[in-house]
């Protein structure tokens, strides 16, 4: 499973533990700064972007 964690500081204990636990179970983890994210919401489709790149692209 691919998991994105929104956190201002990926070095915090809670983020490190989440990453470790997920990796032990074979999951792929990305920690994203929420201040660098934006959402595009429309009636047809919604998307989340991180630093101008779609999260779908980041999580491939």
Automatic annotation (TrEMBL):
<dbReference type="InterPro" id="IPR041107">
    <property type="entry name" value="Rimk_N"/>
</dbReference>
<dbReference type="GO" id="GO:0016740">
    <property type="term" value="F:transferase activity"/>
</dbReference>
<dbReference type="Pfam" id="PF18030">
    <property type="entry name" value="Rimk_N"/>
</dbReference>
<feature type="domain" description="RimK preATP-grasp">
    <location>
        <begin position="1"/>
        <end position="54"/>
    </location>
</feature>
<protein>
    <submittedName>
        <fullName>Ribosomal protein S6 glutaminyl transferase</fullName>
    </submittedName>
</protein>
<keyword id="KW-0808">Transferase</keyword>
């Amino acid at each position: 499973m691919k998991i994105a964690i929104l956190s201002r500081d990926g070095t915090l204990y809670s983020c490190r533990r989440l990453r470790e636990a997920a990796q032990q179970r074979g999951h792929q983890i990305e920690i994203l700064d929420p201040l660098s994210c934006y959402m595009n919401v429309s009636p047809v489709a919604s998307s989340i972007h991180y630093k101008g790149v779609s999260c779908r692209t980041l999580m491939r």
